[in-house]
Amino acid sequence: MLATAGLPEVAERLVILGFRHGADMSIHGAFGDAADRYELDKALDDYRGLFAGGRVGSLMVERYLALLVRAGDYDEVGRILDPAFIRCHDLTDGSDGGTTVDPGGVARALLDRLDTGTYHERDQAILSSTRIDHVHRIAEPAITDLMTAVRERVDRYRAELGAHAHAAMGAGPARYRLDTWSVISHDGGHALPHKHHRGWITCVFYAAVPEVALAPGEDQGALYIGRYDFIPAEAPGWRMLRFAPVPGRLVMMPSYALHWTRPLEQPGLRIAVAIDVCAEP
Ligand SMILES: [Fe+2]
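# fe (ii) ion complex -> structure
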């Protein structure tokens, strides 16, 4: 409406503001489910039009997936849950020519600022942990290296997506910023299944974990990426992926990807940095 009223820049800023808060831009998503096949196709077409215009958010993708399941279009579900959208890098290994990161340095920089964080029995999906926001603002070489290394991997991720990628993943924002926070737990803090509402890609970097979590065959502290329980088993796409929380490891996933962690079974220091790649106007 604002765009047609001659205020396209205001309209664009409002759209970006909406996405920052996880809004669903489809009138169908906001006003209820499709009642019949005609309504279902209309709602799917509405989302497709928005995705084609780069209007994509995690809530929209979740609702679109639910509509696809109702329509029985499992192939498209599989294209949205493409395992190629999930990447894992060892940032201590510079063999790919990228910036290397010292996870110990990142851990020390964060522990030095532990008193600036806030302790949460429960913070959204995360239990028993201290959260430090705006990690990227910390002026320490290890943190600067981490942010440089993440931007390099995000740029490569985008370059390698290719034209075949589903529009729900899109080509990514032309300009982006990194929203960052750290989760530090000493006694079994873990994350319940959740997705990130505001990003295009969500990354998790591990700076420290207890030794026991790295033992062969060990599962505690592991990161899992799964799928919504309304998606039937016969639909293709990723099912359940598991990543050990190895210090220096960066896991990248679409922000709409459902993920969680297994709790630690005994006290031990676990430091993770979460990074949402968000569109900038
Ligand atoms: Fe998360």
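# post-check
The chain has two domains: 8-80, 84-279.
The first helix runs from residue 8 to 20.
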